[in-house]
Model the fold of this input.
Amino acid sequence: MTDTTSTDARSTGAGPTGGESAREPLTWERVLAVVDDPGRNMDDPAPIVALFAGRTEAERRALLPAYKDAVRTRRTGGFEVRPLRPLRHVGVALLGGPAGIAQWLLREDMTWPEKFGQEAIYTILAERDPAWIPDIATRMAARLPLDPWGNQWHVVDALVRGAGLPTPTTPGFVLRWMFEVAGRWRGSGRPLAEHLAADRYFPDLMPALFEVAGVGQSLDTPTGGPNAVRPGWDTALAALADAKTIERDVLLDGCLSRLLRGERPGALRGFIRLHEALAPTDDELAARADGYLRLLPDAPSTVAALAQAALRRVDGADRLDPERIADASRSVLFRAEKTLVRAQLTWLGTAIKRHPAHAGVLLATACTTFGSPAGDLQERAVALIAKHVRTLPPDQVDLVLTEVRDALPMLGDAIRPEAAALIGESGAPEPEFVVPLGPPPPRELPPPISSMAELVEELAVFFGSTPNPWVDPRGQATDPLAVERIVAALLREHARDREALHAALLPLTEQHGHIVHQQWFARQVRGAVGAMVAAATGHGGRQSWFRSLFGKGDAAEHDLIPGEKRDIERIAPPQRFLLARLYEVGTRLRVPHSGPYLAEIADANGFVDPEALVTGLETWEASGHSPWRRDVDQALLRLPFDLDPALIARAGRLTSPAGRRLARTMVAGGPASGLVGRGRFERIHRTYSAPKGGWVHSDGPLATVAPGDPDTVPETARALYGQADPGAAARTAAWSEDAGPDLHCWPLLLPRDRDVIAAHLAICTQRGIDGTSRGAEVLPALAESFGPLGPGMSLAMAYALGAQAAEDRTGAVDAFVTLSARDDAWDTEALGRDLGEAVRVRGLKTTRVVASLRDAARAGATGTVWGTLSGFLPDLLAGTKATGLGDVLALAAETAAGSGARGVSIPGLTELADRKGSSRAVVEARRLRKVLGGETG
Done:
C-alpha cells in the first residue's frame, strides 16, 4: 500500500503535504522565492522539502536549465560560498540520476556547516527513487575526503542508516567516523568503550582501523600534561578485549600488521600505545616473534624499540632461539639510532652468556657496529668482542676474528688499532681511492607542444595532477617546464586560430574554470593557468579579471581578485613577478591581435634564444604594435651570457623603446647580477598557537639583495632585487606556504642570477628549521643553474642542511653534491660560518647538519665537506652549545684525512684536545688534531 501511494504521488503531483500549495505549478520563480526568503533560516531545509514533495520527474526536469544557470551565476559571484548553500537540497530534488546527485553533494563548496539537513536529503531521495540511495551512498563513500571537516560524511551516514545499507569501509568514512565518535565521547562523560560497544558501525569498522592510513593519529590521545584526555582509544579497545567483546588476537595481529606496513612515525604512535595498553603476555609475544624481527631493520625508531623490547622479553623467557637473536643483532646494529644500538649491544652481552654454545655466532654480529658513524658505539662493540673472544672455544674464536678482519676497514682511524690487535695486525689505515665527482648531465628541454589536442591533454594533466591545497597545503610541486610549454602553446595556437582554441578549451573551462574564482588559487600558478584558459574561452570578463591586475605598475598590483584588496607585500617578490607575467599572458589571450612570444625558453635552464628575441622585436616593430611589457622584461632577464657581436649590432638598429632596451642590455653583457648581502630583521609569521590571529616574532639572519646596475634591470623586476622593508620580508615568510608548489618555477625567472633566487628561498628554508618548508627541494635546480654563488645560496643551504624534515635535508645534500662537482667558485668556509651562526642564533640542530654532511661525504664530496666543517668548527668550539660536537669532530677528522688537509689551524681545537678525560668530544678533538698534524701512527 505504501509503495502504491508513493507511486501515485509522483505521477499525479499530489504529495504527502496535500492541499492546494502542493498542486500549484512549480516554477523557478517560486523556487527562488523559497530559497531566498529573508525570513527563512537558511540552514532549515524543511520549506524546500515541502516545496518539492510529490512533484513528478517531468516537473523537476523542466526546472533543470534555470537551476544550472543559477548555480553558474552564484558560483562566479566570488569565493563566498553561502549563496550556493540554499541550492543544495534543490539540486538533490532536481538533478537526474545517482551520479549527478553524488557529484553535487561532494562539491567542495558544500562542506559548511558541519551538519546541514542530511536527513532531509534522505527524505527527498527516498521519495524520488529509493533505488538510487545505495548507488549514491557508495559513490559518496568512495570519494569522501580524508580530512574530518567536511559534512559529506553526515549525508552518507543518513543514507546508510535510513536505507539500512551495509557499512562503508572506505578511508574517508572510517576516519570521519572516528572523529564523530571521539566528539560524542568527549562531551558525554562516559567511557569511550561504552560508546564503541553501542555504536552500530563499530563491529564492521574495527578491522578497518588497521587498514586505513591515518587512523593512528586518531588512536593517539594524550594521557598526560595540560592537554590530557581521559583514557582514550587504546584503553577503550583494550578494555573491550578484556571484556571479550572483541578478540585480543585481532587487536594484536592488527597492530603488528599496521606497524609492518609502515607509515610516518606520528601516524604509528597510536598503534604503539594500543600495543602497550594490551600488555601482551610472553606467549602472545613469542607467537609473533617473526613479525617483531621484521620490524627491526627499517621501522621508525619508536617501532623498532617496541619490537626490540618484545624480543628481548621473549629471550628472557627462554622462548627465542640464538639464530633469531643473531638476526635481531644484525638488523639493529647497523642502524643510526644510538639508543637502539646500545640496547642491542647490552642484550648481546647477556645473550652470549645465556647461549654459550652459540656465543661465537652471536659475538660476531657485534662487528656490524663497525659501520656506525658514531665512534663511541664502535668502541663499545670492540670492547665487547675483546671481553668475550678470549673465553670462546678455538673454532668459535676463528669465526669471530674472521668477521673482525673483514669489517676492520669500516672502523675509524682512532679505534682501528685496538680492533686490529685482536687479529695481530697494526691497523694502519690504507689509502682510499675516491672516485672524483663529475658534473651532472645537462637537463633536456622537452619538445614543444605540437598540436591543439596535445595542448588540451597537457592542460588536463596539469590541472588533474595538482591537489587541492585546502587538503594538502604543501601540494604537489609545479613543473616549471610544463608551465613554459603550456604558455608557449597557448600563445602559438591563439595566433594560429583563436576560434579553434576557444572551442578546444571550452570543456576544460567548464571543468576547471571555477578555480580562478577562488582567492587561494589566484596566488598560485595553477590559478594563473586557469585564468589563461578562462580568458582564451571568453570567460571571466564580467569579473574584470585583468583590469589593473599587475598591469599599471606596482600601484595597481593590489587587486589579485577584483573586489578583494590584498596587500601585495604578502606575495614573495619572485612569485609576484611570476604571476604578473602569467596573468599578462591571460590578457593577451583576450585580445585578437597577437605577436611573437619573446620570453619563450630555448633550453631547460631557462635561457632564451637571443637571435629569436631580436627577430621577435623586429617583427613587433614591423607590425606597428608594442610588445607586451612583462614579456620583454622576462626575455631580458633570460638572456644567455655569450652573445654574438653581430647580433648585438643588429639589436642596435632597433628603434622601439623595447628594442633600445634590448640593445643596451646586450651591450652591457646582460642584466646586472644581484649584490646579495646579509641583514637582520624581525621575522613574523602566524601560528596556530595564536588562534585569534596573533603574531609570533623571532630574529634571524636573512639575505637581502639589490641590483648591481639598476639601469639594466627591468623596472617591473626590481622587486626581485630588493627587500628594503624588513616587514615586507617578514610577511613574505608568513605567506610562503601559498607559493610552496610554485617555488620550482622561480629559478627560471633569473637563470643567470641564482643567488638572488636563493636569497628569497632562504626565507622559506629558515622556516624548515622548526617545521616544513618547500624551499629546500628547489636547491638542486639552483645548483645546476648559473650565476655567482654568495650569501643567498649559503644561507639557504645552511638552513636546509639542518632542516627538520628529512626530504628537505635530502634536497640540500643533492645541491651540495652538485655544487661540489661543478667548477663554480664556492666559499664553503662561509657556508660553515653560516651554519655556526644558525646553530647559535636560530637553534639549528647540529646532529641534523652532521647527518646531511656525512651523506654528502659518502657521495664523494669529501673535500667540500671538510671545507664547510673548517668554517663550522670555530663557532662550535667557542660557543656553549656542545650538543653533537663529538659527531662534528669525528666527521671533520674523516674528511680531513680523506681530502689530505694538513697544517690547518682550527681555533679552540687544541684547548679541547688538551683537556683531561675521555669524553667523545675530547677523543675526537685529539684525533682531528693528529690528522691535521700529519700524524699517521
Q: What stands out?
A: The longest strand covers residues 674-686.
